[in-house]
From TrEMBL:
Organism: Neobacillus driksii
Protein name, per record: Glycosyltransferase family 4 protein
Stretches assigned to the Glycosyltransferase subfamily 4-like N-terminal domain: 19-204
Glycosyl transferase family domain span: 207-372
Superkingdom of the organism of origin: Bacteria
């Protein structure tokens, strides 16, 4: 039986697409009869306190796995606009992972490491030589390109250093896994590697999640924003959109977390058409998403974000909820090509309101989009099928 070590800062029961991706990967590889172990951290995103609630620990098979899930404790837990706070946090995680690897006497055939943060990537590179294993690098965001995109860090010398480190990781890895096809060309050019070294495995859903969806019609139009309200998301646009939605009698539900959450919630709390819900488990979140007519996605208009495919898009499609996307590049291409919503790269709230009303007024079109979404998920974003690509490589 082949042995795999996964190294990931985030994992079950944390919320967010990073933790959910690694949870599915871990469980799918076990289903494929691999002996899988993970080094991860104690759940703390977006804050440690929410995981005191037992409802987040809803995967009994993982709750029993004490030996194969090894967690490190973290002292610096600040998720903030301060890039220095984040860097110290990432470095602390990386150093503790290194100590685990040095102490661990087992042998592994494959080291699977997910990045960003880039420091975890270098932990994986160290593990490759420590265990004499194949090194699989999972890229969920282009880093440091995304640092430039969020606009909180602009020191060319340090960014160039990070860029050089990124290139080393691409070259030294045995396989690169990407969750967005938008990354493929960038990585090829950056590291001068062949396309054959790159494997596309997007975030996705499992069949049980799709089977549990039960859509119902609403008397009052309802749209939802579910997910991160961070530095990459255009929260300013949501802020401007809320009063316009209220004027039109359209309700907005937000299930949100992230560094811009408090600022946004404070500025929109006086509007009666807004319902704010605290972070939920994935299962509970899906139940609420399905009660809505449309799902909203927003990204800032920066070049790097044209390469990403937000996890919200896949979650909305899993729930059969048509998408209104303030997006560009690869994500916009997916929404338009598959005809599962409307996408625009404008940040004009009046124009976004027009698109929302256009879809809300066309019940037949929304139903067609909803049906297509399930087809697209089963065909392209299905973990049970997509894990076979990784298994084929590892075998």
């Amino acid at each position: 039986m082949k042995r795999v070590l996964i190294i990931s800062q985030h994992f079950y029961p944390e919320i967010g697409s990073h933790a959910n991706r690694i949870k599915h990967l871990y469980m799918q590889l076990k289903k494929e009869n691999y002996d899988v172990k993970i080094f991860t951290s104690e759940p703390s995103y977006p804050n440690k306190k929410i995981y005191e609630d037992e409802e987040f620990w809803d995967e009994e098979s993982l709750n029993c796995e004490k030996d194969n899930i090894v967690r490190i404790g973290i002292n610096n837990r600040k998720y903030s606009n301060s890039i220095l706070n984040r860097l110290f946090y990432y470095l602390e995680v990386a150093l503790k992972f290194l100590f685990l690897i040095i102490k661990d006497k087992q042998r592994y055939d494959y080291i699977f490491v997910t990045s960003p943060p880039i420091f975890t990537g270098f932990v994986g590179l160290f593990a490759k030589y420590r265990y004499n294993s194949k090194f699989i690098l999972d890229i969920r965001d282009l880093w440091p390109e995304s640092l430039k995109g969020v606009g909180v860090f602009n020191y060319p010398l340090i960014l160039n250093l990070f860029g050089a480190l990124e290139k080393i990781l691409y070259k030294k890895s045995d396989k690169i896994v990407i969750n967005s096809l938008g990354f493929e060309e960038y990585i090829q050019k950056k590291a001068k590697i062949s396309k054959s070294k790159i494997l596309f495995i997007p975030n996705g859903a499992v069949k049980e999640e799709i089977a549990s969806i039960n859509r119902q019609e609403n008397k009052t139009p309802k749209i939802i924003y579910a997910g991160n309200l961070g530095l990459a998301q255009n929260t300013e646009l949501i802020n401007k959109l809320v009063p316009l939605l209220e004027q039109q009698g359209i309700n907005l539900t937000i299930i949100g977390y992230g560094v811009n959450k408090n600022e946004l919630f404070k500025s929109i709390k006086q509007y009666r058409n807004v319902t704010i819900i605290k972070p939920l488990t994935r299962k509970e979140c899906f139940k609420i998403i399905t009660e809505h007519d449309l799902g909203l996605v927003t990204l800032k208009d920066k070049e790097v974000f044209k390469t990403v495919l937000p996890g919200k898009i896949i979650d909305y499609m899993t729930c059969g909820v048509p998408i209104v996307g303030v997006i560009d590049g690869y994500a916009k291409e997916i929404v338009e090509k598959e005809r599962v919503g409307i996408a625009s790269n404008t940040d004009d709230p009046q124009e976004i309101l027009f698109l929302i009303k256009k879809l809300l007024d066309d019940k037949k079109l929304r139903k067609e989009m909803s049906q297509r979404e399930h087809h697209v998920i089963l065909r392209d974003f299905n973990w049970d099928a997509n894990i076979k690509k990784l298994v084929e490589y590892m075998n």
